[in-house]
Structures are given as C-alpha cells and as structure tokens.
C-alpha cells in the first residue's frame, strides 16, 4: 500500500486522539491505519475510490458549510430508526438564556441551526428565533409533523431568505406517516420553498427514487441532503457501508454534475441536477474519522463544553456514552 497523507483520528476503543495514516491499496481503496498504545492496531475503509478521494483533497474546500448547531430540546415526538440523537422526552428544555449564551460565544459563525430533538415541540420556538436572530441568522431542522399551515405562517416571515426560500430544513422519516407530504403541499400552496429536504438512506437503490421525488417538488425544494446511514452515536448500525463515491456514481448516471466550486469534502459533496442541489453525505465514524479533514464548520458543542466540527463533537459524546473520554475512563461501563 502507498501512504498518501498523515492525519489524526480516534481509537475506536478509548476515543483517544491518535496519529493515523491514509493509504491506497492495490484495488484503489482508501484505507486508514492507526495504532493506539493501549488497544493496538486498527485498519478500516475511508473511501471506495482513490480517484474521488484525491479530487476532494485537491478541491481546497476549507469548510463544509458555515453554521453552529444547537440542540434546543432533547424531546421528540418520533422514534426514528436512523437517529443520532438519544431522545429524552422527560428532559426539561434548555432555557432561552443558556441558548443565547451559546449563540453569543459562537457569534463568529455564519448562522445558527436550531435542532434537537424536535425544536417545534418548544412552545416558545417563535420567541426563541426572535431572540437568537438579534445576534445571527437562524434556520431550523424539523421532522415537519408539527409544521401546520398556521405554523408556517408564523415562522416563514422570521426565516425568510432571498426570494421565497424559508430557512427550514425538513427531515423526512417513514415514522412521520405521510405528514411530511402535507408540509410540501402547504409550502406549494403558499408559494414558498424549503431551504432543504433531508433523507437518510440505507440502500444505494433508494437514491434514484428520492431524486425523482425531489424533482416532483422542484418548486418547493431548493436543495436536498442525502445521507448514508452510519454507525455513529445512536444510529442503528446499517447493513452495509455506503461511501460518497458510491452515491456519486448513481447521481452521475442520472446526469448530475459535481459543483467543485462548492464546499466539497470526502464525507460531503454537492451535486446539481435539474436546478436542485443534492448534498451527498456519508459521515465518518470512530473507525475512520479524519480529524484534520473535518476540522471545520459546521460546529457543535460537545458534552465536555468544547466546540468542534459536528461529527467530531458527536463522537466525543459517543465515547462518553460508552464510558471513555480521550483515553480515560469516565465511568465503569455496565456489562
């Protein structure tokens, strides 16, 4: 194997930051190798295509997209198969003051993304948006089940982008039992567009159907995020790894073009098809995370209080959940 770069990663056992090497093997797979002084050697796939990896590495993207995510509630009204967030419906919502404090601390970012849990479960969500927007622009991520026609009328004026785009990101889930489609119908009736529609796939064959769905709602959807299911944090482990290059092959067969002028990374790439931007995403997990590659926005505050790239922060939280913080035991893990 040929080494192409050095980086930092995490030990999959104790979550300590350790040196790692990125290699290309004879089959042109991209491999990560790393050694933890306590837990030994590890080897895992990073990408299925060395050519794609090199294109991303040479694109010069400094960030994925600007923004800081804030969980405004731990509550959710769904229990989705592929959710990375450990829902706690008994938890009290964060105070508006603590959220505003986090916003002020991270004022150097482009915007604040309010998420959870399901942010629309907060009765004060409108007041919260107004307060946060005194510092930075706001967007929200929602499963749409509470996004009634009346709620759209309430939120749209606060979250209006240029033209008729509203800074609402609709996360589609089978568990929503069709309520997502009602949101799209309401947006169409009001002449509004969603900033993006998000979906998680666990089969490469789902991409073509989703792209057709997005085209059906082209007047309502500005962009999409097609994310491959991963084993990060709370998500149920998928049956097979889907890399961004796998997704890109399908999109290119459909006629999509990579927008190399945008913020492309190995784990996040933007394509354009029929006037819709489709973001193809396959998050790193603890086995193959490249901490140098994702030392960038979007950011998120981990349970330790440190602000990191969102995936890095979630991996810190994942380690804590398993009883480890940067190589140290934080509690005795139950058998």
Structure characterization notes:
- This protein has 335 residues and is an alpha/beta fold.
- The chain has a domain at 68-281: Alpha-Beta Barrel (TIM Barrel), CATH 3.20.20.70.
- The chain is 24% helix and 27% strand.
- The strands form three sheets. It has an eleven-stranded mixed sheet, with helices on both faces. A four-stranded antiparallel sheet has the order 1-2-3-4. Strands 16-17 form a two-stranded antiparallel ribbon.
- The longest helix is centred in the last third of the chain and has 13 residues, at 310-322.
- It is globular and about 60 Å long.
- 39% of the residues are buried.
- The mean pLDDT is 94.
In short:
This protein has helices spanning 50-57, 96-105, 125-132, 149-155, 179-190, 206-216, 244-253, 310-322, and strands spanning 2-10, 17-24, 30-36, 40-47, 68-71, 112-115, 138-142, 165-171, 193-201, 223-228, 257-258, 268-273, 276-281, 299-301, 307-309, 324-325, 328-329.
